[in-house]
Amino acid sequence: MTRKYFGTDGIRGTANFSPITPDIFLRLALAAGKRFRRGSHRHKVVIGKDTRLSGYMLEPALTAGFTSMGMDVFLLGPMPTPAVAMLTRSLRADLGVMISASHNPYQDNGIKLFGPDGYKLSDKEELIIESYMDSDAVELAEPSELGKAVRLEDAKGRYIEFVKQTFPKGLRLDGLKMVIDCANGAAYKTAPEVFYELGAEITPIAVSPNGTNINDKCGATSPTALCKKVVEIGADIGIALDGDADRLIISDEKGNVIDGDQVMALIAEAHHSSGQLKGPLVATVMSNLGLERHLKKLGIGMKRADVGDRYVVEDMRANDYNLGGEQSGHIILSDYGTTGDGIVAALQVLAVLVQDGGPMSKLGKRFTPVPQLLQNVRFDQTKGQPLDNPTVQLAIEEGKKKLGSTGRVLIRKSGTEPLIRVMAEGDDDKLVAAIVSEIVTTLKAVSN
């Protein structure tokens, strides 16, 4: 079935344009309420959001929809996505909702839905909700059964205590100097408190959200400011979160960026040595070939899932694995949570740093990445799908033949934007660049 609203990670788009409008979010709440209103118990919904201006518009629409379905709503205010997942389980709620467009600019917004178990909804569940959204067969609650909306005042404290419990007992961050970049997003209050309470000397940046500065020249997708500040104050490490704090990027003490692949390698090695690692690491098709080769030498397996932390989690759950993630910085540690959590992942890295003594520049370079090049090609959706064009398909096949077994070519359509992502990697960087250039040129020729 073709998706109308949902993409690879919930629903996302430009605020006040379809589908990110109050009327569609109201219909979404009615549909999700119909799907998750089961049994005679008093139903609960947890709603969190990041700091985007449009959150003020969308939160009331969702609240109206859920309460009209007879569901009580717990409003968290600005809170990280993983906090919504955790509190959904903790409160025994029927549904968790996060209003966020993650790393996108403030003009965008979106929604992520979590089931009673704290896991993101499956494709099947999302399609069922979509079918209800365009149907009139929604039974509203009787006047006496309408839901209530309350603000959960201690949500921040609950999440902070939960996160701190994931840090090894007996360890502290005393003497550690760190910079924390909160992207002017959902974790602008929680993240600094976590690291401070564990003893670190922190310098927080991008912690003054105004509704329009989320992810603006800050955060995990723009770590330049973080790296500069780390060097400027002589910090031991820098942590950058994205807008909803479900992923991270790290800066070492020299201002060098450490991406999700290196972070996954570091945690995998540490957990493998301690006996905590269960099964292989679950990465995605975007993770560097160097990571796979490195782990193989250490006797650690690696599997690849489709792009999207939800698909990583699905593989982990199906096989009882406990570590997975993405090159972009989503790290899933299923011993602690049900979705990517930038703060929890940071604490695992900090535990290694404290125990090893560092420096982070040494710990963060677990392997030498294979030359990898990624370019995005924007296309006009009204002109069809470029990947269906025979000329494009031929260029892709030619690129794969040239690399052979020494590398990979990966072409995929973005699930949230009209973009084709062209990636190639291999031991010969010049060959990789030539292959990407040829495919990109071909895509542009048929897309314009």
Your description of this structure?
By secondary structure, the chain is an alpha/beta fold. α1 packs parallel to α2, α5 crosses α6 and α8 packs across α11. It has four domains: 143 residues, Alpha-D-Glucose-1,6-Bisphosphate, subunit A, domain 3 (Alpha-D-Glucose-1,6-Bisphosphate, Chain A, domain 3, 3-Layer(aba) Sandwich), CATH 3.40.120; 98 residues, Alpha-D-Glucose-1,6-Bisphosphate, Chain A, domain 3 (3-Layer(aba) Sandwich); 89 residues, 3-Layer(aba) Sandwich (Alpha-D-Glucose-1,6-Bisphosphate, Chain A, domain 3), CATH 3.40.120; 76 residues, TATA-Binding Protein (2-Layer Sandwich), CATH 3.30.310. It is globular. It has 14 helices and 18 strands. Helix content is 37%, strand content 20%. A hairpin with an 8-residue loop joins β4 and β5. The model has no long low-confidence stretch (mean pLDDT 95). The strands form five sheets. Strands 1-5-4-2-3-6 form a six-stranded mixed sheet, with helices on both faces. The chain has a five-stranded mixed sheet with strand order 8-7-9-10-11, with helices on both faces.
Fraction in beta strands: 15-25%
**Cα radius of gyration in angstroms:** 22 Å
Query: Helix- and strand-based class?
Result: alpha/beta
Tally of contiguous helical segments = 14
- CATH superfamily placement of the largest domain: Alpha-D-Glucose-1,6-Bisphosphate, subunit A, domain 3
Uncertain segments: none
Tally the structural domains: 4
Quote the distance from N terminus to C terminus. Answer: 29 Å
Report the biggest beta sheet as strand number plus sense, adding barrel if it closes. 6 strands, mixed
Instruction: Return the CATH architecture of the largest domain.
Output: 3-Layer(aba) Sandwich
Trace the largest sheet across and list its strands. 1-5-4-2-3-6
Mean pLDDT across every amino acid position: 95
In percent, how helical is the residue content?
Answer: 25-40%
Number of strands: 18
- CATH class categorisation of the largest domain: Alpha Beta
CATH topology of the largest domain: Alpha-D-Glucose-1,6-Bisphosphate, Chain A, domain 3
What coarse outline follows from CA principal-axis ratios?
globular
